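Example for tutorial group B:
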């Protein structure tokens, strides 16, 4: 299992590549929520999301072990992050994306120097293709969350929050496959076990909630939440045991609550976040996560949204 040392090592590995993002405060947000909220600004991170932390750690280590070629299977933030870091390190990357991938996202991957290959419509089509490409070319396939070096990289968010807000009471984290929260759980619970950590999922993609309730990895299918970074069908084989060991709870938010949080946040702070990040704001605004006089750190996991998508989050 990944431990605190792995996360401290990851921090050294990636420190010259990533931004140490600020922990922002908004008086207006605090007033509305009746809470003291601190925003971990990963929407201002390189490539627009925290995914660069895990990708940088995993790709750097793969290259140190001799990889000459990198693949990933994601049209989203992970694909962009892998393309970016491979470009930085000067090694080729092929990112396998679905046939109907968003054009803006494909353009971002290409702008970072990644090659794009289209394949099928589901991750069950893409992942085997990305693995096959890696095998054929002496390369390494980099998964989005279920890998020790990815988890360790994402955990650096937790180390930074503890430094920026040593008396934090609770940390609220969006949950997809669980790489981000399992890294944060490891970093925080192994140094300050009293800090509570709450995960957030959309109601329609509550695979981690169900898995924790039943005590075994449970899949849900056909999730259509606007929080597209959280649409993974089930927690990972490496991430889930970490959640079982350390997590304090998962709360669920509705699509309406996510949209309201997007609108409210953008209007008040003039900053752009993507719906996956807005789930954590929604959890606090609805009072589902965090109590009245606690210091609450909310992980704003990303800010990648194009204007067409943004329109679907705004009032008619
Ligand atoms: C990937 C992603 C998540 C979920 O992270 P996991 O490690 O899969 O749990 C949340 N928000 C954004 C913006 C993401 O890109």
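The residue assignment follows.
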């Amino acid at each position: 299992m990944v431990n605190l040392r792995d996360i401290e090592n990851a921090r050294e590995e990636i420190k010259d590549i990533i931004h140490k993002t600020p922990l922002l405060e908004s008086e207006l947000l605090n007033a509305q929520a009746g809470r003291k909220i601190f925003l971990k600004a990963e929407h201002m991170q390189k490539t627009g999301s925290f995914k660069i932390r895990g990708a940088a750690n995993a790709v750097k280590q793969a290259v140190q072990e001799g990889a000459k070629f990198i693949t990933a299977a994601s049209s989203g933030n992970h694909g962009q992050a892998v393309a970016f870091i491979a470009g930085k390190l000067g090694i080729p990357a092929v990112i396998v994306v679905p046939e109907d991938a968003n054009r803006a996202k494909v353009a971002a991957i290409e702008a970072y120097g990644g090659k794009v290959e289209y394949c099928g419509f589901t991750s069950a089509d893409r992942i085997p293709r990305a693995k096959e490409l890696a095998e054929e070319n002496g390369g390494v396939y980099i998964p989005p969350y279920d890998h020790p070096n990815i988890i360790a990289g994402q955990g650096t968010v937790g180390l930074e929050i503890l430094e920026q807000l040593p008396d934090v009471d609770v940390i609220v984290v969006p949950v997809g496959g669980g790489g981000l929260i399992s890294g944060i759980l490891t970093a925080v619970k192994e140094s300050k076990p009293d800090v509570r950590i709450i995960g957030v999922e959309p109601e329609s993609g509550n695979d981690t909630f169900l898995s924790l309730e039943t005590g075994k990895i449970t899949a849900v299918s056909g999730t259509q939440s606007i929080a597209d970074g959280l649409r993974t069908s089930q927690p990972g084989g490496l991430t889930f045991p970490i959640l079982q060991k350390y997590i304090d709870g998962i709360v669920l938010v509705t699509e309406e609550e996510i949209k309201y949080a997007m609108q409210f946040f953008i209007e008040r702070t003039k900053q752009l976040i993507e719906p996956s990040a807005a789930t954590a704001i929604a959890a606090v605004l609805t009072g589902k996560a965090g109590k009245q006089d606690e210091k609450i750190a909310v992980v704003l996991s990303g800010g990648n949204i194009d204007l067409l998508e943004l329109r679907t989050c705004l009032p008619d």
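Residues 49, 51, 77, 145, 174-181, 229-230, 232, 274, 276-277, 301-302 surround pyridoxal-5'-phosphate (CB under 6 Å). Compare this with the pattern of hydrophobic and polar residues in the output above.
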